Fold this protein.
Amino acid sequence: MTAQKKTSAKRLTNEKMLHILLQEIADVRYELKTDIQNLDQRLSGRIDGLASDVTIIKTDLTSLRLEVHQNHLTFIKNHDDLEKRVTVLEAKCAERFLTSIHPTS
């Protein structure tokens, strides 16, 4: 075989190898595009579900915050009412105590 034929055979082999590599790259690109699209669709569904869950939790927290605020106000009012009742009872007890020590008649 002459040197020219060996170079020609090598070039053909290199051209075939280049063609195979380019085809492989194209196939991998296509597979990656498909995988990315599938992953995007799957994750979009999950993200939509999570967004919905966050909205529900936000609504629940708002409601809970309002209930806690209302309970706090009720507690303060009940505590104030109880303080008033205790003050009245203390005054009555003090009056009875004083009248038992120093009867008026």
